[in-house]
What does this fold into?
Amino acid sequence: MKTFADVVSKFIGVLDKVIPLIVTLAVVTFMWGLLKYVRAGGSEDKIKEARDYIFYGIIGLAVMVSVWGLVKIVNRTLFSRAPLNEVRDIDDDTQRLRDLDLFQRGV
It folds into this structure.
């Protein structure tokens, strides 16, 4: 049976792998919009389409960076005894979650 700490640790691990991929997709969308804008040649329809790509790329990037930050804040707030300004690796957080789980089990 999985504990709460195991589930949260797994979720954070998945997010740490997925978020960089989605950020990359947002950057590629933004760059694609820039390329379309440069190649629009003065056509209003093409310029509008390019602006839409640029806009969606920026929005996607902002949302993913915000989600990533919120996950880090929640993780450190709920499962860490260290101050928020301390820089740590996710492996340290995972180990702390495992230690917490062992403590709760009385091992």
User: Anything to note?
Assistant: The chain has one domain: 4-105. Residues 4-105 form one domain. The two ends are 16 Å apart (CA to CA).
